[in-house]
């Protein structure tokens, strides 16, 4: 008993490490930690915002229908690059679903994944997500190219990149909703 009292923190640390080494427990732990540390995304300062000039991008939805990104020109657009195997991506999905429920008819949402439809559909179904998911069919516009997942861009009606967030965030935050409302009012 004396051994446990003296070494409880070391035992706890070793237990956590072991849980992180086991694939079945690692992913839920990573998702939970990402949710705990996810804050509202930061807005790019007005003078540092770049303009997205290239809207030529072909996408396909999970029903196999072709979509052209240029259909979203002059609208407020949110583009999220994600994957089902990515814990930070999974962590932010509930906040995206809540945001989409309220803004889906006002903002163009593109949840883009390079994974196969056979992997995406069961994931979305299991989690109960009703998000517009697309697969890229052509090169991503250069200003939205990233090697990180998740990466999310918020684009104004004038094509300015207002948010460029790499990593998980709380997209259902009141600060972000206020930003969306301001962009929609422009």
Automatic annotation (TrEMBL):
Q: Which UniProt keywords apply?
A: Isomerase
Question: One GO molecular-function annotation for this sequence?
Answer: oxidoreductase activity
* Thioredoxin domain location: 48-185
Pfam families for the chain: AhpC-TSA
- This protein's record includes keyword Isomerase: yes
User: What superkingdom heads the lineage?
Assistant: Bacteria
Q: InterPro entries, per this entry?
A: AhpC/TSA (IPR000866), Thioredoxin-like_sf (IPR036249), Thioredoxin_domain (IPR013766), Thioredoxin_ResA/DsbE_sf (IPR050553)
Q: What is this protein called?
A: Thiol-disulfide isomerase or thioredoxin
Tell me what organism the protein belongs to.
Answer: Salinimicrobium catena
